[in-house]
Amino acid sequence: MGRDRHSNAVLIIGLGRFGGTLAESLQRQGQHVVAVDENRELVQEWSGTLTHVVEADATNEAALRQLGADGFERAVVAIGTGIEASLLATGVLLDLGVTEVWAKAITRQHGRILERIGASHVVYPERDAGERVAHLLSGRLTDFV
Ligand code: ATP
């Protein structure tokens, strides 16, 4: 697959709660999404909702190359708990020349390593959600003061 083919698409690695929600939202907004997960059951589950879902190990460079990952400009590594897989998949995407790699981190340490290996954006969904809820709650609490 040529580089131009996926230049406006987003490659999403991992269809857990974060990656699945992200992939579905982007597709609903009209973005071309290709989602990858190594879990066959999850891939089958999502294939009813997402147009392009592929079963592959994202730490395997040859597998990612085969599905055309080197033709993407934007990718999101939505693996959190599996820190090793998160780092390896991020490294493989960067090696393949993906320009913008977003990666999910579960701890500050995890995020720092992702930044050091070259992830362009590191997101902390749990931390961000906690801050958002605190903000919403404190707004409500001041209504009662
Ligand atoms: P959630 O978004 O549900 O909180 P999480 O942060 O706990 O997820 P993981 O469960 O580690 O993250 O991974 C998310 C998804 O990524 C899972 O569906 C898992 O199957 C998939 N995944 C993990 N490692 C790989 C890999 N090497 N290749 C492809 N997919 C992977």
List keywords for this structure.
145 residues; alpha/beta; 6-stranded parallel sheet; 46% helix; 19% strand; globular; binds adenosine-5'-triphosphate; Potassium transporter; monoatomic cation transmembrane transporter activity
Walk me through the structure.
One of its GO terms (molecular function) is monoatomic cation transmembrane transporter activity. This protein has 145 residues and is of the alpha/beta class. The chain is 46% helix and 19% strand. It is built from six helices and six strands. A six-stranded parallel β-sheet has the order 3-2-1-4-5-6, sandwiched between helices. Strand 4, helix 4 and strand 5 form a beta-alpha-beta unit. The longest helix has 19 residues. The model has no long low-confidence stretch (mean pLDDT 93). The site of adenosine-5'-triphosphate has 22 residues, from helix 1, strand 2 and helix 4.
In round numbers, the mean pLDDT is 93
What form results from the Cα inertia axes? globular
The percent range for strand residues is 15-25%
Q: Are there runs of 5+ residues with pLDDT below 50, and where?
A: none
Number of strands: 6
Separation of termini? Answer: 61 Å
Order of helices and strands: EHEHEHEHEHEH
Rg over CA atoms, rounded to whole Å, is 16 Å
The largest beta-sheet arranges its strands as 3-2-1-4-5-6
- What is the tally of helical segments? 6
Bound heterogens, unique: adenosine-5'-triphosphate
Helix coverage percent: 40-55%
Structural class: alpha/beta
Major beta sheet, specifics? Answer: 6 strands, parallel
